[in-house]
Design a protein that fits this description.
single chain, about 525 residues, alpha+beta, D-Maltodextrin-Binding Protein, domain 2, Dipeptide-binding Protein, domain 3, 3 domains, four-stranded antiparallel sheet, 21 strands
Length: about 525
Amino acid sequence: MKRFLLGLLASAALATPALAQSSPGVLRVIPSADVTELDPTRGANLVSRIYSQMVFETLFALDSKLTPQPMMVETWRVSDDRLTYTFTLRPDLKFHNGAAVTTRDVVASIERWAGSTSIGGQLNRRMAGMQIVDDRTFTLTLKEPFGLLEFILSGPGAPIAGILPEADAKRPIGQPLPNPIGSGPFRYVASERVSGHKAVFEKFRDYVPRREPTDGLAGARIVKVDRVEWTVMPDATTAANAIVNNEADLWEQVTPDLAPFLQQRGVTVRRLAALPSQSFVRTNFLIPPFNDIRARQALALALDQREMLDAIAGDKVPTKICYSFTICDGPLSTEAGSDPYRRTDLARARQLMIDAGYKGEKLVMVATPQLPAIGQMALMLEQRLKQIGVNVDVEMMDFSAMFPRIQARDRPIGQGGYHIFPYFAAGVFWFHPMTNLSLDVSCPASSWAGFPCDEEGEKLRQAFLAAPDDAARKAAYEAFHKRMWEFLPYIPTGQFDVTSGFRRNVQGVLDAYFIAYWNIEKR
């Protein structure tokens, strides 16, 4: 089948004459999915995160070592008791509408993000308040020392504390933002938006980069093209041929099976992100049977990581068996507590499903073929569930339909509800228990898909977040990780490289926290 597919691709590439070289000022991109949330304080997936950092900025940014560095901040100081931070903004910050960025915009944006998101909530619970000193200076006062303050304000994970104009930041939660105005290096062109198909970004001519060298997402953000055009192509074959035939310049997420096809035709294919991605299976904790720990234990005993990774990537990109809830070889790498689930046991898994009260009713799995890794995972998950006696119905849909579906709470089965879904997440999100939304086990049930609640686990997570230094955080995380293997908020199914592909004339693509569109030029 793979040879047949590659044959079709080769024939198509030869049969279609290459188009004339596009303008060097236009970077034509095939994104991983369409961007549907334009508010940086609300967008909770990777494509929203990439969009947000193009159009908006944060007070700090993560460098190539995932260390926060100043971005919108010129200077800051911390009081001796580590409770009061005084921030002064750079003097040259300007919104896309020409207005100067002031501390009123910053404070309103942080309040919006902190009061309505899982990540921001970690700051909100520790923050006593913010005070505006003048247009460029404000203070943030904590109730207790919080060693991760600069990190959390650097935009780890998603949503981020992107700075909006004050009026936009104070609008009601849930109100759309069809014409977003940021202060980032790119301006979103709302007039050229085609929902489900196209998004356009123009270079913001009045943007003033920092003077430090570019380092990950930190330092100078120098835009070298006039426009970035995102064209959504759900079909991987179409995307591959678009790159080869000079109809596109860069493909954000190359399907592993197509990597050799592209490489054989001179396309650069490599991982850009600082860490690999993690695949996992998540259940709905609000309804039977997976609200019972025995059903989740059954799932953990049924899944084979090597089988899942082979389905996702085969031997086309690097993969690794990993029993970490974050990322193996990442800053918090550990597999503590995973020993009971390192070997499959289908007979025991089947009995555990019975013990959990499962009686053969149909379970709904939601997935998408638009992201091939998820589509392939769904096929393997369906097979394994059937092997332990589970009657499963797989509902495939576009990612733009799947993502809001898995986040919808309290929907009955048959009316948008679900029991289980396969997924993968960027390692640069999942490497840390603050940005890994699946490890938010706060009670009442957390805000991300699946909605687990584990009071004991959340106490251990908060102990990690409150730890004063890296050594204390590492020890606290070990205890939290062991508890997660007892509770099973999701089932890790291994990690793999998500690669991007770009034509030879595309230069300056950065290795960073995730793909960045500054520094790129076409020659």
